[in-house]
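Sharing a chain and its predicted structure for anyone who wants a worked example. Both blocks are below, sequence first, tokens second.
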Amino acid sequence: MNLKDLRVKLFADGASLPEIEKACANPHISGFTTNPTLMRASWVKDYAEFAHVALSIIGDRPISFEVLADDFETMGRQALKIAGWGDNVYVKIPITNTKGEPSLPLIRQLSNSGVKVNVTAVMTSKQIIETAAILDTATDSIISVFAGRIADAGYNPAPLVNRAVYCSRLHTQVLWASSRELLNILQADSAGCDIITLPEALIAKLNLLGQSLEERSTDTVRMFNEDAVKSGYTL
């Protein structure tokens, strides 16, 4: 399959402003996501400043920024502040706080008040069903199923993603999160996902999608041979 044949939208996931700018020049990238872990890894010092610079770079394409608090009252205040940064901004609300307490009442409140929420770190069937049921059908929203982390635990994420697609209602998009390989793009597309997020390392490999396996085999052999020659090894 070629990129032009995909129905799923590709979003860049990261917090490096140069990488965001580079992704903007890629015609296959139609949106952006980030989170506090990615921002910390990119040495972001001022959250709001970073967000406003990112927004100036990406134009009107959608982007998700996450709340920082762990208590729901402060999450709500932060969510309203983040939502005020632009009409293309989605506010990431974790499905629970660090104590495992569900964020559903806050998610419902925000969605009903017109805030575009991106419900993040979703990994169970129960979380999917309950989230899909409370999102306002008149407000745009995203359910981010962390398929890569589900797979890391030894579970097949496809049934959960399929459940999310089946349960999603009007104005709710399903997002395949924490991608690990290009195959995930085809899996997300096959599952009917609206969006898949890709780190910069996978975006850089997009040209490999659909490459002939014979050609890829030869390229691999060529790499091994070149490295053997460069190393100066002898037998």
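Comments welcome. The chain has a mean pLDDT of 97.
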